[in-house]
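Recap slide: Tripartite tricarboxylate transporter substrate binding protein, sequence and predicted structure.
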Amino acid sequence: MIPSLYRLGASLICAGALLATATPAAADAGYPAKPIRLVVPYAAGGPTDTFARALAAGWSRQLKAQIVIENRTGAGTLVGTEYVSKATPDGYTLLLTTVAHAVNPSIHDALPYRTIEDFAPVGLAARAPLVLVVNKKLPVGNLKEFIAYLKAHPGQVNYSSAGVGSAPHLGAELLNYMSNTKTVHVPYRGSAPAMADLIGGHVAFMFDSAPTGLAQVRAGTVKLLATTMAARLPQTPDAPAVAEVVPGYEAYTWNAVFAPANTPPEVIRKLTDTLGATLKEPALQAKAVDLGLQLEANPTPQALAQFVRAEIAKWKPVAVAANMKAD
């Protein structure tokens, strides 16, 4: 009798161990069982939304479940970001955001969420270079002459941007911070009016996304002086990187995916694996070229976590030096 009970108990223990071991795999196999919402804290039709929709198309195929884009705008990116931070951590509500996520702690007095603690990183998807363009009448012919001109006219040269805390704003203030120059920021509601006033001569220069900025360069309406990644861009091999004159300079926006904190690790793993596979799809890679994006080769949660912390540390002193505050 006792040996039989012993064998029964041992069998139950083994079965329990097997069940415990299988649980993550079972959860992974059952996910996703319904559509996933990818929250974009930007308006429909903009560059972030455009990339999100292209990404969602391929990612849906990889996950074998529909990914639905949900634009939640307001208070910069705070409304959409807060929404995801408070969502059920089950993998069915995700956030695709930008460099604003790392800058917001420095330009807002308070946030309705915790930038690090309230999110589970899924993966960095893409980086978006900027270009430095100037009004055609500005008396400079290259980047060195431009920086010399700024130093000779402190506080007298103005520039436009797509708004406070936007990537173009950050790019210009990083240049001020690292080259010891002082320029005057003129914020606009979007890059289109900012570019229009640059062309019209109301401002002297701006940083813009590579596709829209280079379109104006090709049209002959502005002059290209430099690009903002650490190395020159393949599409503009004759234009220097700012870092060639200002060592260490690098400015760009980015697109990364986050889930609410406490999302199960097996769900994060499946999201990350399928995100990586999506970024390798030829269709998305072709779309990225059109959008001026550089896709990540192997996104991981660990790399994104380190990246966001580094971005927060990078932009905080720049924001403080520029007295950068959200409207």
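The domain at 34-128+254-321 is CATH 3.40.190.150 (D-Maltodextrin-Binding Protein; domain 2).
Residues 1-27 have pLDDT under 50 and may be disordered.
(End of recap.)
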